[in-house]
Amino acid sequence: MTERDDIIRESRETDLLSAFEGDVPVGGRTPAAIREFGGKYLPALLSFFVVIFLWEGLTRLFGIETFVLPKPSEIITSFIETWNVVWSAGFKTLYEAVGGFVIGVSAALLTSFAAARWVRFREGMLPVAIAANATPIVALAPIFNNWFSITSPLSKMAVVAVVVYFPVMINTTRGLLEVDQAELELMRSVAATPTETMLRVRVPHALPFFFASLKVASALSLIAAIVAEYFGGPQDVLGQYIINRANLFQFPDAWAAILVASILGVAFYVLILAAERLFMPWHVSFRTSE
Amino acid sequence: MTMVVDARGVGKVFGGGAEAVQALTGIDLEMETGDFISLIGPSGCGKSTLLRLVADLLEPTSGELLINAKSPSRARLDRDYGMVFQSATLLDWRTVRKNVELPLEIMDVPTEERSKRATEMLDLVQLDQFADHYPWQLSGGMQQRVAIARALAFQPSLLLMDEPFGALDEMTRELMQQEVLRLWGETGISVVFVTHSIPEAVFLSTRVLVMTPRPGTINTEIVIDLPAERDLSTRESPRYFELITEVREALRRGES
Ligand SMILES: Nc1ncnc2c1ncn2[C@@H]1O[C@H](COP(=O)(O)OP(=O)(O)O)[C@@H](O)[C@H]1O
Ligand SMILES: [Mg+2]
């Protein structure tokens, strides 16, 4: 077999693989690209509509009361009617989530670099972190409300930051440390300093780990923000809005707020996917044939 | 004249106490400029360990080892040698060109000079058309050629190769051997080459050192007196087969 055959074979293999990786083909909208796009997203879209349709149909068929489970049509109606209120609450909650996310991720990165750089720090720190990670952190919300003032978004950001911190820190540290031994020997053989090895080998190696943890963290940050809001604070945020509407038996309104939360969650997630593509264009999951 | 590699009674013990492994003992080696030395021997006889001692990736526990009349660590910091590992060890996130430029970046070579040197190296290993590809787009043989280009990019006087073609198929392997001989001829570099293929060792080398295990030591030295120009006809010459037999018998003697 010639080397050219090798390349062709390999690119076919990666082609097959990319189909499993949720990859969007880059480049022109050729018929093949459109077919591939449809092939990937059509099933998801279809099952989404099937669920909505079944939900609507079954709640009608069995005459399920709105206070048990509103029909999708009622939720959509409320979503449109309360548009301004519900989005305004959504963005306040998003502000807490993103603020906490930024604080938590920054702290996690600092710790990870320190852990990768200094063995002693790592040995002292990681077991504690893993133990702390196993405790249900939202339980801290009432305490943070007390520390940072219940009316300040900071008290919610603090909960988010702590929730987000651990998965990002643990994964990024792993990525920085689990580097191929041969790559480290290569760097040593060309007399690279520890800093050069960090920047040129450890950091790029940790990026996939880091982004995987960011995806988890993006979902966690909204969950944590809303749960923290349940413990009290200003009324014009998603968590309190949901509680208030539910207390008034306005369940379609509560569900409309949940819809906003999930739209924001998906948007946040997609943003991180885009950043991932931007920062790791070489990565396996983005490989396409030429 | 200074030796490229000068080892006297070099030994290496891994670990300590009851667990200690004597990986190498009493290694004597004098390597002159332009030598192409192959280390051959069964798995675990300490070939990689010896190469790593030369590369200052390990420290000897006994004896004296000098590279270009310097300590191995001085030689490493001076970038006296380039190293090629069994796996190409290319950085996935860098293009072929950027992989070749890696050591030059570490040496703070200016961007323009770096790019010029990378182009030359890629020409040398005949991969100039693949400069902007990523490693995963290349076959195993091509990846290993990039690794060789990277090792030569800063013009070291010594090239260390640890079973570089072990993972390649026979055809590619023979092409790569030819390529290495060409580079060796064109650059005048000295090479230490680890292999467990007898024909490969004989075809490439000026000297073959046959190693034996437990503890690892150099058992026999065989001078390869084939003509300097080596090609397909060399592989069919009677002398080539005689030398292969000689190395094989030395290996067998080492086992008993
Ligand atoms: N880092 C290490 N720690 C302990 N023992 C080692 C280490 N590296 C190699 N050895 C031992 O030293 C001996 C020689 O190994 P190596 O040089 O890799 O052999 P070869 O390359 O000839 O196959 C083996 O017995 C191996 O188990
Ligand atoms: Mg070995």
Write structural notes for this entry.
The complex is a heterodimer of chains A (290) and B (256). With 290 residues, chain A is mainly α. Chain A folds into two domains: 1-64, no CATH class; 68-286, MetI-like fold, CATH 1.10.3720.10. In chain A, 78% of the residues lie in helices and 0% in strands. Chain B is an alpha/beta fold. Helix content of chain B is 39%, strand content 23%. Chain B has a six-stranded mixed β-sheet, sandwiched between helices. A three-stranded antiparallel β-sheet of chain B has the order 2-1-4, covered by helices on one side. The interface between A and B is medium-sized, with 28 and 33 residues. The complex binds adenosine-5'-diphosphate (ADP) and magnesium ion. Residues 14-15, 21, 23, 41, 43-49, 216 of chain B line the site of adenosine-5'-diphosphate.
- CATH topology category name of the largest domain in chain A: MetI-like fold
Number of helices of chain A: 11
Count of domains of chain A = 2
Strand content of chain A: under 5%
- Which strand order does the major sheet of chain B show? 5-6-7-3-8-9
Mean pLDDT of chain B: 91
Give the helices and strands, then pairings:
The complex is a heterodimer of chains A (290) and B (256).
Chain A: H1 3-20, H2 31-61, H3 72-81, H4 83-117, H5 119-133, H6 141-148, H7 153-177, H8 181-189, H9 194-230, H10 238-247, H11 251-279
Chain B: E1 5-14, E2 21-31, E3 36-40, H1 47-54, E4 62-67, H2 72-77, E5 81-84, H3 96-106, H4 111-124, H5 140-152, E6 158-162, H6 170-187, E7 190-195, H7 198-204, E8 207-212, E9 217-223, H8 232-235, H9 238-255
Parallel strand pairs in B: 3-7, 3-8, 5-6, 6-7
Antiparallel strand pairs in B: 1-2, 1-4, 8-9
Helix pairs in contact in B: 3-4, 3-5, 4-5, 7-9
